[in-house]
Recover the amino acids of this structure.
């Protein structure tokens, strides 16, 4: 019984992520995400870092965003990472 709600949540998350990627593949523009901040987080079940980003590009106005992910030794403040952005609503994908 408990697995059904979890399965529905995972299915919905995967479906949303696929839709976001299709949209970015269609209308996304190249950009660069610069790491501005790294903050550790741990919710008791998972741990990682919240990465503060400044995202900009020639066809994308600069904006700030956060990205939660697992720790990685290459992540550091000042690192510049290729990204793809939908400038209409600031949806982005980091190519890391």
């Amino acid at each position: 019984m408990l697995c059904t709600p979890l399965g529905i949540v995972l299915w919905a998350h995967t479906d949303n992520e696929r839709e976001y990627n299709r949209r970015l593949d269609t209308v996304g523009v190249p950009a660069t995400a610069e790491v501005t901040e790294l903050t550790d987080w741990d919710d008791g079940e998972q741990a990682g870092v919240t990465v503060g980003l400044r995202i900009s590009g020639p066809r994308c106005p600069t904006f700030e965003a956060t990205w939660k992910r697992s720790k990685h030794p290459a992540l550091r403040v000042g690192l510049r990472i290729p990204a793809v952005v939908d400038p209409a609503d600031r949806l982005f994908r980091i190519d890391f």
In short: Helices lie at 3-27. The mean pLDDT is 88. The longest strand covers residues 29-42.
